[in-house]
Amino acid sequence: MQPVEQTNLFFRQRRWSSLLGFVLIGLLSLGSAWLTEFDSVRAVTSFLKALNWLFTRFHPTVESLAKLPKIGEKMAETILMAITATMMAAGISMVLAIIGSQTTRVNSFFGTISRGLASVLRNVPVIGWALILQFSFGQGMITGLLALLFGTTGYLTRAFIETIDGSSDSSVEALRASGANYLHVIRHAVLPSSLPQMMSWILYMIETNVRDATLVGILTGSGIGFLFELYYKGSYYNHASLIVLVIILVVIGIETLSNQIRRIIL
Amino acid sequence: MELLEIRDVSKIYNRQTVALSNISLNVGEGEFVSIIGPSGAGKSTLLRCINRMIDPSSGAVFFQQNRIDQLPKKKLRQVRTQIGMVFQHYNLVNRLTVFENVLHGRLGYKSTLAGVLGYYDSFERRAAYEILAALGLQEQVFKRCDQLSGGQKQRVGIARALLQRPKMLLCDEPIASLDPSSSKIIMDHLQRISREMKITCLVNLHQVDVAIKYSDRIIGIRNGEVVFDGPPAQITPLIIEQIYGTEAHELILSLETLQPGQKSPVKQSEVAHAAC
To answer: What is the pTM of this model?
Structure first.
């Protein structure tokens, strides 16, 4: 076969395989829409209706501003819960990650256990943990805190393992070769190389947890989520909308702050 | 008395890949020995079998009469303090300063507590400073390592190894990532260390010409076996062919036909790189 014909054939096959890919994706979407009885026309009209409702009913009024101190208090409670859960999780994750990382693990048995535990914690969503923990701890702050703690520990352990393996591999070899012991290596090679990246992950988890704490609060009856549900169920939509506004502002605020901190430490 | 004795050392990875087979050699005090050979010949494995960063599959390694391959963990740490290691990629903690990285060389002598707290006494700190100054890094002492050039980083690596007060340095491709002029600085320092401080240097090299110029003795390794062991003067095109195979031999031959005066360092390294 001539080289030109060969390349022509190659590109024809390329075209056919991408076309086939698009057709498959199209069929998959149509099929699932049909199975779930998804009506695209109705989706658009109800979305417009929802927008309309948002603007006419769901906005803060002057009298809802009177609720601001109470909302602020609950918001602060929620933020503190998110930070507490994240910091506790960070401590546990640090230990789990050092045991679970390829670079610093003590042996493969504990390494596997640590990574397995993190995987289980991570793969149950925070809401799932909240529902499960409610059986043992009932409604309240502690259930929400533990749910966030579990999920965050799973997530941070994974992130910390990646950080340790990515940043300290070679210096660990050097220190071990010089006769330094395990704890020396952790303290002088692993921690200095990975702490800034770990801090960045912790900040990210605080942001995420402030959002999640709101949701968990609705389930476990604590923090700003509880207040939201109270107003919403009682048809005080104006108060409820003020809460949403406050949450958005706080989340943006925390994100900005942590970006500033990141810029300094990284 | 030999400082280092390697007796019948073999290393087999995953029960099938033979990296070293029955290597035996002795190295005396203050010797400057280069190990040359093609990539994958087992040079790095050999070096790491000496300080047991890799455990040999069989054979024995003696260092100052200690049988290294049978030492318990604690004794092994003590022996490792006597053996400095220098790496191709420097293996520094980039976020720390030059000074901190050099002081890491003292950790092997410390108790867990003193080491974790990072307590270094004034002797250690002065010694660290003096070594850095001797290597021409007095301006860089408090800079972070990620601000240094490759050649400077390698000098920090050497300083860290020297602060161990070692009897021997293991250098794994110390100039493979450096430009010719930094390479020369590093090799000159290593030579001075071996001559003036009487520290044995075992250096893995890719560049045959560098090995010939600096070594007291060259060891050629191919497929995990020693195929040459002798002074640089004994290196002939035939020997090069035995170490590297036929293709390389022609490139290096052309290098040898150059007059010594015409050998610019740039050309030498280029040719040798091509050969490897």
So the answer is: 0.82
